[in-house]
Amino acid sequence: MMNRLDKDFLWGGAMAANQCEGAHLEDGKGLSCMDILPSVQYGRKEAMYNPQLALTKKYGYYPSHEGIDFYHNYKEDIKLLAEMGIKAFRTSISWPRIFPNGDDKEPNELGLKFYDRLFEECRKYNIEPVVTLSHFDTPLNLSKKYGGWYNRKLVDFYLKYCKVVFKRYAEVVKYWISFNEINMITHIPFFGGGIILKDDDDVMQVSYQAAHHQLVASALATKLLRDISKNGKMGCMLAAGSYYPYSCNPKDVWAAVEKNQDMYFFIDVQARGGYPSYTKRLLKKKGVCIKIAAEDEVIFKKHKVDYIALSYYSSRLISVNKKVLKNIADGNAVTTLRNPYLEATPWGRQIDPIGLRITMNELYDRYQKPLFIVENGLGVSDKVDENGEIHDDYRISYVKEHIKAMKGAIADGIECLGYLVWGCIDLVSAGTGEMEKRYGFIYVDRDNEGNGTLKRIKKKSFWWYKKVIESNGEEL
């Protein structure tokens, strides 16, 4: 089977408001959960897993407050992306830029005007906006006042926000994503659900109940979009990466099955229209009992998403062997074993292009809905040489191999809407708050301490990706 891509395939890049915009209190914006997190050298890890501490402690530097100042440089940045030839740009709308406290009676018009200008700039260059509604930026007030997504009241606040932006941008935005990496809420509750846990809280109970509320909100947002927009498409999003069994020991194989089920049940609800049969067993094992309203099952069944968005950085590995379990690798907030067959980045992220093809096959076989790779990329430290150039052949190699794997999956018969490289312009890392962990084709002169001119420099990969897009993936 040929694996040539459709002429309308969406090549592009992806960013997130809280990691790039900055202007954290400008033009009426309220604080988001990410705005109280410092960079890694000031204690980001302790703050993200203990947000009660982050609420009271004063840290030295908050990277989201300025980001890469996309808020004031978006015209220059979109022009650069257009020069590279991208067809789609994924970003997020900052919820607290529209509703500063989350429970405000009226939206912030100045915040809406910023996105008016941003999407207008995208359309000026025929770039398709792909918009995430909630990307790790729950308004901080909703966390402090209501307990974040553990409180079902957030469903109504979220839908009010959705209604405003759907009505405003129905004619300019086709592709929407309800929640970024929805399964992350059970790994980092503060990121995913704005949840500030108390000492006596049952982490699993709170996280899975909050996840249920997000699933209800996603289904109702899907209904709302269809009521408002004729052409709008709603997607769900998974932090993807299939679990492999460490060995052919049946116990390892079963451990991998359970891990994958724990990941897929979120998407089962959004794409299949209900909790899968194994949910009761899975939740019972975790000691969790979700409160489900009488109408929720009907809501799920009626309002399924149009496509499956996914981020993919690596596969994962699991074993029941206690000795093997000591060999842990960085899995981006997801615990995984070190795979002896894979190389890893300096940040510990394992590199597995074939894993993308495997994951795509599993997802498509399971859901039979179009897939959309909305995040994939390599986070490493780049150096500017004496000529002011960045020769990032390692990034070219990484992206090239993943594109090959994606094309292989498409040859397998999988429908894929597009491929968006994460952090197409260098931005603040979500996990560490660093700038030195760079993903972009475009360098930003900013360091981990917030120093630098913010000058944008095209890397070698910029010109390579431009040729990839021009050739629709034929010239790698």
How would a textbook summarize the main sheet? 8 strands, parallel, barrel
The count of strands amounts to: 16
CA(first)-CA(last) distance:
19 Å
- Unreliable sequence segments: none
Q: β content, as a range? A: 5-15%
Description:
The chain is α/β, with parallel strands linked by helices and 476 residues long. It has a single domain, classed as Alpha-Beta Barrel (TIM Barrel). Helices cover 40% and strands 13% of the residues. The protein contains 16 helices and 16 strands. An eight-stranded parallel β-barrel has the order 1-2-3-4-5-7-13-14, surrounded by five helices. Strands 6-8 form a two-stranded parallel sheet. α4 runs parallel beside α6, α8 runs parallel beside α10 and α14 (353-367) runs parallel beside α15. The radius of gyration is 21 Å and the shape is globular. 52% of the residues are buried. The mean pLDDT is 95. Keywords: Glycosidase, Hydrolase. Its EC number is 3.2.1.86. GO terms for molecular function: 6-phospho-beta-glucosidase activity. The active site is at 375 (nucleophile). Pfam families: Glyco_hydro_1.
